[in-house]
Amino acid sequence: MNTDYGTFYGVGVGPGDPELLTLRAHRLLGAVDVICYPACKPGASSYAFRVVKELIDPTRQSVKGLVFPMSRDLSALKPIWRQSAGAIVEELRAGKSVAFITEGDPMLYSTFLHVYQVIAEEQPGIAVEIVPGVSSISAGAAAGRMAIAQGEQRIAIIPATYHAEQIRATLERFDTVVLMKVGSVFDRVLDVLEEMGLADKALLFSRVGARKGFVTREVRAWRGRPLGYLTTLMVVKDPNPSFEPEAGAEERE
Ligand SMILES: C[S@@+](CC[C@H](N)C(=O)[O-])C[C@H]1O[C@@H](n2cnc3c(N)ncnc32)[C@H](O)[C@@H]1O
Q1: Ligand 1 centroid to 26 CA: how many Å?
Q2: What percent of the chain is modeled with pLDDT above 70?
Q3: Exposed/middle/buried for residue 128 (C-beta within 10 Å: 0-12, 13-18, 19+)
Q4: Which of 10, 79, 111, 177 could join 130 via S-S bond, C-beta 3.0 to 4.6 A?
């Protein structure tokens, strides 16, 4: 481990309610020298930053927005990830501790992973600590009173931007399917649910945990209406599974 460098922290800040920050995240964010957050354009704030901004002391700590544009063009994105990782390494090299914050959990579809992978590959001597956060999936399930899985049920988590055929195939194979990033493709996903008779089995949640967030079982009411990026759909095919052992299960034990 390179002890001249500061430690790099990947910190999950939870789904939006500051009360859902972990104690560790709370402590670290008040202690690190630099807090970095992902922003969609230069100068923009971020959802994750708004969750933690009250914890930061600007007289002691500096804050950096790092731009991560919304794009699927990997050839354009990779140099940007390297550039952001470079800006973080510069601070670490100066001996500063740096926290990169992400909404929800940092190990689930997060921007943190892009910079972490570059730093882990190119600067393996840097100490990294990852602080888990409450994922939007856990928060949505709790707010909607809908279990993610029970007993022997199987879960799939996929981006809703998959092709309709792939979404259909996933819904056929799994008991619960969580569709992330559903905001921009909601009507197309709702069509699949209607075809499969599953629209009544879905829970839609947006900015769950934040003041303007919502959670609803009335998913049809959202057809044709704008939904933000921080929106998730969870389909639970059997919310009340039987816990009866399968025939022959006792003999197998
Ligand atoms: C880049 S992923 C980040 C996931 C995040 N790391 C987590 O653990 O929830 C972004 C997607 O997460 C979901 N998401 C994140 N925060 C959310 C929230 N507060 N309410 C509902 N969905 C959210 C949405 O599906 C969104 O498109």
Answers
A1: 20
A2: 96
A3: middle
A4: 10
